[in-house]
Amino acid sequence: MSEQNKTSEFRKKPVYDLVKRIFDLLVSLVATIILLPVFLVISICIVAEDHGPVLYKPTRVGKNGKPISVYKVRSMRMGADRLEDMLSPEELAEYKKNFKLAHDPRITKVGAFLRKTSLDELPQLLNIIGGSLSLVGPRPVLQEETEFYGKDRDLLLSCKPGLTGLWQARGRSNVTYEDGARQALELQYVRNRGILLDIKILFWTVGAVVRMDGAR
After folding, report:
1. Residues in contact with 49: Cβ distance below 8 Å, sequence separation at least 6, in sequence order
2. Which of these, 57, 120, 151, 186, could form a disulfide with 69 (CB 3.0-4.6 Å)?
3. Quick one: average pLDDT of 17-38?
4. In the 8-state DSSP scheme, what is residue 106?
5. What is the full DSSP assignment across 123-179?
6. What's phi and psi for 191, nearest 5 deg?
């Protein structure tokens, strides 16, 4: 890629970024207040089933490669990070390939429902208020996942990660790293990001959540 083309892909959009930040703050603050009773019910269900903490904060890669803690409702059993203890060799190999499992034995019964409805992502509204996430952007990933983007890694990380994004709205777990389809969707968003695309993605996400498309 020539320096001119590379520069154009990293183009700054200060007006768009300002409007997006204001929109992020307004929507996330209102949503947090409205959804607080839902979070309280979820918390009671998690404690009743598994007796562990409600929230956990996995580390992901944020804008410009900065590590960020992403808030999530815990949907897995305690000790789920000990992959070798929790997964069979076949499951471990599948996880290392796509960082997801078709049938993850670590997920609790409450957690399965939360994932299908995307309610496990609810606490990320706090990340949006804090500024480490946006409503729309590439999904926050593990450091190892950035290797799938090769020479486009810096392009991916030039954009603030989002609660939802083009991959989340148009495929989720049905679109994987293996054939490059997930990378293509995430990079397509970074290259073409704008107010109209963000609005489309938010509507697509609502539809995907209602239909539970690719939920896992």
Report:
1. 108, 109, 110
2. 57
3. 96
4. T
5. THHHHHHHTS-EEESSPPB-GGGGGGGGGGHHHHTTS--EEE-HHHHHTGGGS-STT
6. -75, -25
Query: How many other C-beta atoms can be found within 10 angstroms of the C-beta atom of residue 92?
Result: 14
Per the listing, tokens 């509204």 go with 125
Question: Structure pTM?
Answer: 0.83
Nearest to 75 by CA among 54, 102, 51, 91: 54
Q: Residue 76 carries which DSSP code? A: B
Average pLDDT estimate for 91-101: 76
Helix (H) or strand (E) holding 208: helix 195-211
User: DSSP assignment, residue 105?
Assistant: T
Amino acid 130 reads: G
188/108 Cα distance (integer angstroms): 34
H or E segment to which residue 115 belongs: helix 109-117
Spatial separation of the C-alpha atoms in residues 106 and 101, rounded to whole Å: 10
The radius of gyration of the chain from alpha carbons, rounded to an integer in Å, stands at: 17
Q: How many residues does the chain have?
A: 216
HSE (CB half, 13 Å, CA atoms) of 55? 12
* pLDDT per residue as tens digits for the range 180-215: 899 999 999 999 999 999 999 999 998 887 776 655
